[in-house]
Specification:
The structure is a homodimer of 418-residue chains. Chain A is α+β, with helices and mostly antiparallel strands and 418 residues long. The first copy, chain A, is 32% helix and 28% strand. The longest helix of chain A has 21 residues. Chain A is elongated.
Chain lengths: 418, 418
């Protein structure tokens, strides 16, 4: 993409009302726009990174047998009344609205109820199980106070997967697979070393659930980490003696850290299937409630945590897996027409080789271009200038390390497609 | 994808409360699920077709210089008050909701206001123009009565593109490009012959706008068609003598038809830019309001119209461009293990050749499998059975024409990748 087609401008200063580092950087770099407190728009660069995060998650969900669908945001109160989650006394996250005839509707803050109700039409026999259905879908949550930039918002896309199993044994097997898949997601987006599988309380149907917590000073949570075992406990269970028995963790060996919850997996058991009448006939012909689990990741929060943790004082630093482009081709101003021609040729060849390139073809000073490039955080900057033209090699600078090499077109393509 | 992983079941009968043919077929085939009146979920097959429609539109929008972004659904009343479109007296489509502190928010039914407001931060000089920004984003419209299945719903994804130009001349050039791009979209999804560019009234800033209307008995609109010129008029302008002068159409030559609006393009002029303060400095240093246009397509409505028009008494018939899969590999029941092995091998080879295949690997009767296959509407059915095994060639049946051939694996792959 030519940068001259990108309508967004970078900003030296973040808006004064934006206190979180992730939103400051993402706004300054033109990735997002703040619509109002807790509500953000994705601008072209931000949407590209966001979509890459979705694709990483999608690939990992498909690998464990997930099937993608998409449910509505508008919610029917009747369905939620069956699980006692319609009233504002029981659930404080609802945004509610009304039809013209006065009938109330909700905006989904999660989707256990409608999906369980839907599955009553699809699941009737043990032969229909298990089912692993997931979506990337906009949730609405009426947060009292929205803060922390993209980390806690009132409208956000969530990857929510729901598992429907014959029994607890089948469920547990998938729960572990899902846990491993989450580990791979965080690894692939650059948070592998800082993200800990964390024991949390389990609610009514299992002793523990699990959160995935990324250590981050801007986080709202506190966890207690065993670095060697790469496990943690959250505050809910930290003082519960049983958790140490169950996990073998030793309280004295844990270190405390601020963290952000980037994912969670829950055993739901039969709470929703019983309330909504989702049962199946087993091999003996008996009617049995389906055993469920739910598994969430907020892709925008993940993007925010990466922005928060992997950035430096010059701007964003994306891992290749979720960078909006792989190469930032920076053409420096010159009176020599050959510089532009060379940049165009390089853009063409890289693009043809399947490499995503943002080409800074604007008329602007070199200093401005480099500052924007640093702020954008694209993994590899390739500079085309009179100097590189004379040398026959382009200057290639890795954004993360600053490591600089000089490569010909063929060396560069060889390097990027290796 | 193996059909045994697809949790949806086909239905012989549509739900009784569903009167529209498109929704009846799509529900029976397991493409969509009705959540409530005017609100549908996309099940895996439906989501695949829907995503293909999005991609066709995305490609055509990118070709004319569109840049993709994504705005929020939650809307700030302050922005809409500036154009007098917040009050329910002026706009009857709003769904409104409230923050915990009692402040009202809206759910966007369109996005002229927030995008124009956003652009005031990005556009300041003639050098920043033109800008063509588009999104695929969920709109919410509080329709009095939702009917016609997916054709008119209360929650739906819209492709909305907004153009920001220096002046009317620059705008008009893009308006025509956009019109051509729309023509290509409808052509690619199989509605080229039945869709007519239709003159409609233009509102305050231009004499005419244009709708794209597809002739369809289930449509809510009436248009008047000149088949030779492939143009039409809608009801608003049919009795306006000026439209005949402007277009050269002759009233007596027009035929009346029921139709569905599948797209529209509007000249907005400076109505929104003036109200929201979006201006730029021209080359003479003068401040000038940006000249705008808007361009909408509802991808789910498009999918519904294709379902309505291209189906037959056996079920859906998708064009290749938007079919959920290209090949439906139907393995017939057999005691001979070689049949399953052959199906698995064919699935592997087709998938490796980049062809999307749904493999009916279920234990079910041949009749049931064929009926499901017809209902699904995947363009090519390839049958693997004892008979085809003996013949060394697979039976290949085109869904649309019923045309049948017999091909070896290599002939089939050659045919599909030609």
């Amino acid at each position: 993409m030519k940068q001259s087609h990108l309508f967004t401008k970078t900003r030296r200063e973040a808006p004064k009302d934006e206190v979180s580092k992730n939103a400051q950087l993402l706004i300054r770099a033109g990735y997002i726009h703040k619509e109002m407190a807790g509500v953000y728009d994705f601008l072209p660069l931000g949407l590209r990174t966001f979509e890459k995060v979705l694709n990483v998650i999608r690939e990992e969900m498909n690998k464990i047998g997930g099937v993608e669908l998409h449910l509505s945001a508008l919610q029917n109160p009747e369905t939620w009344a069956k699980t006692d989650r319609w009233s504002d006394e029981n659930v404080d996250a609802w945004f509610k609205t009304k039809l013209k005839n006065g009938a109330e509707l909700g905006l989904g803050f999660t989707h256990e109820e409608p999906l369980t109700a839907l599955m009553t039409e699809q699941i009737s026999s043990y032969k229909d199980l298990p089912v692993y259905a997931y979506q990337f879908q906009s949730k609405f949550r009426n947060e009292e106070r929205a803060k922390s930039g993209l980390m806690r918002t009132r409208e956000f896309v969530m990857k929510d997967l729901y598992s429907f199993s014959k029994d607890e044994a089948e469920h547990t097997k998938f729960y572990e697979q899902s846990s491993d898949a989450y580990g791979r997601v965080f690894e692939r987006v650059g948070l592998g070393d800082t993200t800990f599988k964390t024991f949390a309380s389990g609610g009514s149907f299992s002793k523990y659930s699990h959160e995935f917590q990324t250590v981050c000073d801007a986080g709202e949570d506190t966890i207690y980490i065993d670095d060697e075992r790469k496990l943690a406990l959250n505050k809910e269970v930290y003082d519960d003696p049983q958790v140490y028995e169950a996990t073998g963790l030793v309280k004295e060996n844990l270190r405390e850290a601020k963290s952000v919850e980037v994912g969670n997996i829950f055993t739901l058991g039969t709470r929703f299937s019983e309330a909504l009448g989702l049962s199946y006939k087993n091999e003996a012909g008996e009617s049995v409630p389906v055993f469920m689990g739910s598994y969430g990741i907020g892709p925008a929060r993940l993007m925010a945590v990466v922005a928060e943790l992997l950035s430096d004082d010059k701007g964003l630093v994306w891992p290749e897996s979720i960078a909006p482009f792989r190469v930032h081709l920076v053409e420096l101003p010159s009176d020599n027409e050959e510089v532009s021609k060379e940049a165009a040729e390089l853009y063409r060849e890289l693009t043809e080789a399947g490499i995503e390139v943002l080409w800074d073809d604007r008329e602007a000073r070199a200093g401005e271009k480099f500052a924007d490039s640093d702020l954008f955080g694209i993994p590899l900057r390739v500079v085309v200038s009179e100097k590189t033209l004379a040398a026959g090699k382009f200057e290639c600078v890795e954004r993360a390390s600053g490591h600089t090499t000089h490569k010909s077109i063929s060396e560069l393509i060889g390097h990027l497609t290796a």
